[in-house]
Amino acid sequence: MADFAALETNTAPPRSVDLAADFRQSGVAEILDELDSELTGLRPVKQRIRETAALLLVDRARKRLGLAHETPTLHMSFTGNPGTGKTTVALRMASLLHRLGYVRKGHLVSVTRDDLVGQYIGHTAPKTKDVLKKAMGGVLFIDEAYYLYRPDNERDYGQEAIEILLQVMENQRDDLVVILAGYADRMDKFFASNPGFRSRIAHHIDFPDYDNGELLSIAETMLARQSYIFDNEARNVMADYIDLRRRQPHFANARSIRNALDRARLRQANRLFEQAKGPIDTEELSTIRAEDIRASRVFANGVPDSVRETP
Questions:
Q1: Which of 59, 68, 104, 272 has the fewest CB atoms within 10 Å distance of its CB?
Q2: How many CA atoms lie within 13 A of 300 on its CB side?
């Protein structure tokens, strides 16, 4: 009897948990710090990620204490314009879910319609199932998910992919998290046309556009990662560029900034070759000057809205 009592005591659940200690030991703080360092701004997005982490930590604590437990639905919708960090956040979310034990592997599989939908009868199911097999144990990120549904095309096979996805999202939600992403208005129409998706998505996160100051900070961070800097005048010209470029069509937030910097580096390289008459020091090789940015077509004729520059 004494041995049985000792065994019962040893196997009884604890009466309390230290959530702060759990947070430190889980490694979640590192992931959140990575998000802060990698992505400028996006405060509401980061707050939602922190809230999700808190939910999962509490859910895990309840399980340890022997309280009623049911794995929360973690499928998500990320809405926002291009270049607002949706893929980066999805990657960090996969790591967070793995750290907390909600997915086995923590990898991210990123796909679009073409990866899931076939072009002829019998082609879609194996394509979709193959993608799902690769994503199991991690996160499946479907960009521009609304293209799966094309009601105007009777011969479209997207509905078949949707039905397979819905079944897996419901039956294997403890081994796969699906994140649907795209423009907010199109995602609203997609959910309205596919209520099965809406009922399975528990977390809707909107990614706001960056403001001018945030985009300038992003530009400086991107340059720093490649060991470049703006000189003072170039920084001011880049601020003007951002203000003008945001008013043009096809602006894609951080993507457009990255492309602009690639073109500035190209102009800098050509300038150095044309002007160099001897050895060039590290500072000159690493500095983007105002002329490298001002040569952009965005500044042409001083009429930014009439200019079309590929984002």
A1: 68
A2: 9
Q: Determine the Cα–Cα distance for residues 202 and 215; give it in Å rounded to an integer.
A: 30
Would you put residue 253 in left (φ > 0), alpha (ψ -120 to 50) or beta? left
Q: Which two tokens stand for residue 57?
A: 């930590």
Which long-range CB contacts under 8 A does 104-109 form with residues at least 24 apart? 104/136, 104/137, 104/138, 104/175, 105/137, 105/138, 106/137, 106/138, 106/139, 107/135, 107/137, 107/138, 107/139, 108/138, 108/139, 108/141, 109/134, 109/135, 109/138, 109/139, 109/140, 109/141
pLDDT in tens, the chain (311 residues): 445 444 444 566 677 878 888 778 888 888 888 888 888 989 999 999 989 888 888 888 888 888 877 778 899 999 999 999 999 999 999 999 999 888 999 999 999 999 999 888 888 999 999 999 999 999 999 999 999 988 777 678 889 999 999 999 999 988 999 999 999 999 999 999 888 888 899 899 999 999 999 999 999 999 999 999 999 999 999 999 999 999 998 999 999 999 999 999 999 999 999 987 888 899 999 999 999 999 999 998 554 443 344 44
**Cα–Cα dist 53/31, whole Å:** 10
| CB count in 10 Å sphere of residue 19 | 13
